[in-house]
Amino acid sequence: MTLSFTKMHGLGNDFIIIDGRQTAPALDTDKIRHLCDRRFGVGCDQLVVLSAPTADGADVLVRFFNADGSESGACGNASRCVATLVGGNPVLQTSAGLLLTSQDGDLITVNMGQPRFGWQDIPLARECDTLHLPIHDAAACSMGNPHATVFGDVSRAEDLGPSLEHSPLFPQRANIGFADIITPTHMRLRVWERGAGLTLACGSGACAAVVNAVRRGLAERTCVVTMDGGDLRITWQDNGDVLMTGPATTVFHGELP
């Protein structure tokens, strides 16, 4: 028996994608960690498993697993990769809800849904002002997974990221973005992802950073987010939905015993 997979990346945020719509792969936490290991496995930031959908209107069920084996609720860059792999304009069923996709040439847009701002929704360990957390004055929201954005400290992502991810304020840990506002329509961002560490790009993190910047009065509702791996265009629509637009690249196809 062999396990077929596709290696893809969105702005350097890389994934192993396994299509289990016909035959579900037998994966546990140890196997996921092994596959994601860059020395002993294939290597990636996250492993993505596709299954037959169970929700009305969905084309594919998508589950995201961090490199440490933990499961994530949503991943914007991986969603663009899945849309490219499946083809057309698929509706993705995730634990964060149904994500609508569309493609225009080399660019894929994913409707990441609406952010949530209640302290229970993120979640936080206790009631706090989610626009001004008591740690580094971060702003927090949920984009299907917990995010906090620290403004003006992009150079400290590697320094502060690990401790903030594991702060007692975040009972499920959190993705920590470090953003510098260049202009109201352009920001620089680095994201320390829970379970993966510092990545070259983070789609949901870019969405959260723009949403939090708009809430702070620092950015306009459409903003280019420059990360180490490249640029995403994020639009927080008036209806509350957040649109993320960027590329997706296939690296190679492979098989594992």
Automatic annotation (TrEMBL):
EC number annotated for this UniProt entry: 5.1.1.7
Major location category of this protein: cytoplasm
Gene3D superfamilies documented for this protein: Diaminopimelate Epimerase, Chain A, domain 1 (3.10.310.10)
Pathway the protein takes part in: Amino-acid biosynthesis; L-lysine biosynthesis via DAP pathway; DL-2,6-diaminopimelate from LL-2,6-diaminopimelate: step 1/1
Annotated active site: C75 (proton donor), C75, C202 (proton acceptor)
Chain sites annotated for binding substrate: N13, Q46, N66, G76, N77, N145, N175, E193, R194, G203, S204
Residues marked Could be important to modulate the pK values of the two catalytic cysteine residues (site): H147, E193
Claim: Transport is one of the keywords in the record: no
Domain of life: Bacteria
Localization per Swiss-Prot or TrEMBL: Cytoplasm
Keyword Cell cycle (UniProt): no
Function: Catalyzes the stereoinversion of LL-2,6-diaminopimelate (L,L-DAP) to meso-diaminopimelate (meso-DAP), a precursor of L-lysine and an essential component of the bacterial peptidoglycan.
Subunit (UniProt): Homodimer.
Family: Belongs to the diaminopimelate epimerase family.
Protein name (record): Diaminopimelate epimerase
Source organism of the structure: Gluconobacter thailandicus NBRC 3257
The organism's taxonomic lineage, starting at the top: Bacteria, Pseudomonadati, Pseudomonadota, Alphaproteobacteria, Acetobacterales
